[in-house]
Amino acid sequence: MNNIGRFSVIALLIFFSAGIFFPQSSDPRERSNQLYAFFQEEGFRPQRQLLANSNQFPYSIILDFNRKKATENQEIQRLILAISQETAEECLDEVLALAKLMESTTAEVTLTLALLANESYPFSPTQEIAAPTGNNTTIPVENQWHPTGAQILLENISNPDACALVMLDGTTSQFDQATVVFGSDGILTPLWLIQQVPLPVSQDFLITYRLNLAEDNPVLIPFFRSGMATVAISFNSNEPEQRQRVFTALKTMTENFSVEKSVSADSQNYIVLRFVENIWIGEQFSIFVYLLITVLVLAIISGFSFLGKKGAIHRQSFFRIWYLIPITILLSTFFLWLGQLVAGKFVQIAPENTVVILGIKTLFSFVAVSLPFIFHLKFRLPIAQFVYGYLLTIVVAMNIFIFASIDLVLLFIFVLEYIIIYFSRLAKKIVPLIIASLIMLLPFIPYAVNILEYASQDKLLHLVQTGILGNMLYACILIPFQVMWLRIMVRIDLFGTHRHISPLKIVLATIGVMGIMVICIVGTLFIGSIMLNRTLPEEELNQQSHSYQLVDAQAPEQLQVSMSRKSYLKLQSVEVHIASPVPIIRYEVQVLSENQIPVYDSAMNFVTVQNASSSDIYGKNEQTGATTHFLIPDYPANTTSFEYTADGDKAQNIKVRLYLEVAPYQVTLVERNFFFPALDGSLLALEGTP
Fold this sequence. Notes:
By secondary structure, the chain is α+β, with helices and mostly antiparallel strands. It contains 22 helices and 24 strands.
């Protein structure tokens, strides 16, 4: 062979070896093998963390550094950096540099780099797939029966309280820069961990995380619920600048990481000063402010307002009108609920109509609270303007206690509203009253903007479509504005009850006031609807999430789904065997039996669910039994099999569902149903239609 030939062969070998590692769109199971071999060649000692007791599925890769032995039966502190294998493949150079730094650093804690397999599901958690029978029924995608690398990682951590987790998500970022996710499912990251992430933390997300209105990440929820200090970094792995910035921050965090021991720093009851970069207020200071405000508010309400002779007159006037507060709240609650029902008749109950439904409810409430007040005006009961201002002070003070007890992050909204109302309580003219009403909106605007922009639309709809208690809380928020509305009605004397006013002036004043209110409500609805629908196009979201879509296609002729069993004594050993010529994205195996324990044992993990009431396999009604779901990871090998042991004296129905990839991000659903009678019978196969 001449030199040119030798050079060509060497070049091809180099090209081929580069292609073996990390080709584009590699198979998840093959990706796990490639990453494992890669880190072995780099001199590390990776460990496999299997998603199931089988080598037929992808597996996570764990790299431990600076591992120390636990003393006195106490697990040492541990920092875990977790990243999906898909993102690790795209950021391989940065991940390798991070691993080398973690290996060389002398940290006080154990460092772990976890490359997670199957971190994201191939189907959306809420996606429904049409049944292959051709009718209108649907088959829900049961993601809970398919373990991911993150779930298995959490299951293998014996003491979550002694660990801190930084989760990297490089595939689903919808923002122009890396975003720190410090909450999920209404649980926040401890303050001490947030302050050690050397990346800007967006203050706009705090209100949605605290009130559990943010879009939940199903990967993070189990970690937050376990009590582990958890924070996530979402970025676009295809953007070199974001990628470099994130991994530089991780290197800095790894070198300087320390575990905070103080109780105050471990608290999750913190808030943030808006318009100030990275200024956080801890729980102790918030509680101090809350108690101080409580003392001041109670002193102002109970002591200073009714002193002296003039105070005695005010006290008598107040006792003649105090019932307006409970009446207004009850009426407002009822008509909010009624407006909620009426809104459902005019608009579809859908996330895109959330603001419209809220506007209809609010309008109903404002009209309702005007009715008892009109009745009050008709009796011409002389009430001083001071009393209406005092009513405002009481209801806002009431809101401070109510909503601060729900969450301290709401404390400063109602404190600011209280300050505004306190200094405007003596206003009597129409223009100052209207200006005060508009200023009262200011504390709510930053929070409303954040909620509309960053909250989950489904959660917002659920919040608006609420029950009696939720409507009563919303009525408490509305009552200060409604009392101001009543004060304005008194001042302009819309109905001419205190002095003679021509009908024309009454009509013009009424039209003017109602017009202003309608303009404000319509403007709020317009702005809110625009902000609520500021989302990425559906095609772009589907492309980012890489979720598979169901298509109608024929099952491959070479597809094999078989069941076989062996019996011994009164037990039966059943083997499930699947061989497919095309990739299997997911498969599900369910065992239904009249026995309360359909499956006794299996190398594959499983969960048994009792059937409360259903038809049994012989067609008899009201037969109780159970269903066993096998916990099978996604992306299995094209040829897979496993066995399970069951009671041989009980008949079984075995249902197998396969999602086969027929085109990029397109799957077809194939069902196979098998029936095992008791041991004295024979195996029957009932094949479903793809």
